[in-house]
Amino acid sequence: MDTDEECSIVLELSERDPFFDKKKKLLQSKGFSPKERIYLKSSSKPGWMNATVEVLLQIARIVQLNELELYFAEDDVCTSMESYSPRNELEALNSIVLLTDISLSTCTHLHTNILQGLRQTILDLISDFGDKNSVKGVVEKNHSCDQEERLLEWGESNGLMTQLKIAYIEGASRGAIARKDLKVGDIALEIPVSIIISEELVHETDMYGVLKEIDGISSETILLLWSMKEKYNCDSKFKIYFDTLPEKFNTGLSFSIQAITMLDGTLLLEEIMQARQHLHAQYDELFPALCNNFPDIFPPELYTWEKFLWACELWYSNSMKIMYSDGKLRTCLIPLAGFLNHSLCPHVMHYGKVDPATNSLKFCLSRPCRSGEECCLSYGNFSSSHLITFYGFLPQGDNSYDVIPLDIDGSDVDSNEDIPVSNWTTHMVRGTWLSKDHRIFNYGLPSPLLDHLRRSRSPMLRTKTFLQGSLENELEVLENLKDIFDDMMENMGKIDLDDRENCSWDEKLAMDFKDLQRRIACSVSTSCHTGMDMLKNELCKCMAEDILG
Ligand SMILES: C[S@@+](CC[C@H](N)C(=O)[O-])C[C@H]1O[C@@H](n2cnc3c(N)ncnc32)[C@H](O)[C@@H]1O
């Protein structure tokens, strides 16, 4: 921020960013450098604010891209006001709010109005973005939440502060609802460290004396085994918390054989099978040995496979990774925060760090939440297959992280000095409806994938000038890709969605997931088909030009 006449904001891509080179290239393709100073002039020109915000946002979006978003980022899309993903958009907008806040704290009186104007414009954009992109949870009014309210009172008597109350939400069991209008930066929930369940609690027990002798046992497993017993401890400090937990979790880990069979032809089948095998192996390593050797500490009736699976589902679906003030990352169960559901357009994005000043965990809003609206978190940038396996739900709306990985050799070994390679080592697709660029040579498909396929046919095929000269090659690339996805759809088989209503919870989820996979595969196949038509037209035009001379 300048203190003289001109008021400016500097946006900088850190050289420590793991994707510095790729982001720099993308910035340059849009005419920006990794460090840009944007002047905020309340000039006479009408619309200067919108023009300035557009520039700030274009840069901030690229700076905030994560690896997967970067893979799908399109470098020559003209529509600059389009977002890359809800996560990216909210991060980008919030990063600008933060920059204006820093500038406001140091600027001269002269610039306060400009910065406040900019801040308000960005806050309005955040609000509009949330309204357009969120799926609002519907509150079920006829459920009592007595147990949850008791937990809340217990929390408050231990120093917890909240602007949320618990209610039942259609299709998601319980959720947290704003008690009043909350704005960006407000703390929706503040939890003192003293009521967070973390490994330190186990250290005080005789169970820990036994478990710490087991080679390679993780603190997550220790906590999991502790919670299996603590659930039944009437004197537990956390009894009220354990009483609010569901008796059954319904994640992919407890899918029936029928539901798993329905997933045939999808990668989710393997993901679930592998996760279950891993848990079975872990259980078999510990039991019945621990029960036989220490029956007082590990009563056999509390350490059955079913109860072990329940605890695994509890920890997978309800735990959070928290950075404590000592710099240690701990996997924790957090009473009340565990009622917050996941959204693809969350209100709370960052909540993983204990504030050393208050020794508490704060859940601050990255977008506003109106009174009565469900307040949601981001559990992470997860695909639907991960969310089904470990959380047991398929989020509503377009999930930017729903990709189908491609089993092709991803390494770009044929790097040519003059032709910059994109050096992605793995390749994937996602629903091409998420792309904004369906023009010839892009087709709504990710450019790193197209570049790789082109280069593996002919190392010189890279730039669009080369592409024009080798339309046949391009046609083959699309033909091969289309074949892969047509085969995939055939392997998945057809599902009768009309039967859905008579199905069990897991069969419904399996059907919905398969339907999603089919839609992604179908969109890729259709985009290839449309692309092939465009190429054939181009070829006809070229032939006609040749004939005409
Ligand atoms: C941390 S808990 C959230 C509170 C939970 N709804 C409850 O009643 O205990 C995570 C679980 O909530 C459910 N859930 C979270 N987000 C959801 C969503 N967007 N749609 C449906 N269910 C969701 C899933 O069952 C998930 O395993």
Automatic annotation (TrEMBL):
Database matches in SUPFAM superfamilies: SET domain
InterPro entries documented for this protein: Rubisco_LSMT_subst-bd, Rubisco_LSMT_subst-bd_sf, SET_dom, SET_dom_sf, SETD3_SETD6_MTase
Alphabetical list of Pfam families matching this protein: Rubis-subs-bind
Keywords: Methyltransferase, S-adenosyl-L-methionine, Transferase
Listed GO MF terms: protein-lysine N-methyltransferase activity
Signal peptide: none
BP GO annotations: methylation
Keyword Transferase carried by entry: yes
Occurrences of domain SET (ranges): 162-380
PANTHER family named in the record: N-METHYLTRANSFERASE DOMAIN AND SET DOMAIN CONTAINING PROTEIN-RELATED (PTHR13271:SF103), UNCHARACTERIZED PUTATIVE METHYLTRANSFERASE (PTHR13271)
Protein name: SET domain-containing protein
Protein's organism: Glycine max
Gene that specifies this protein: LOC100778605
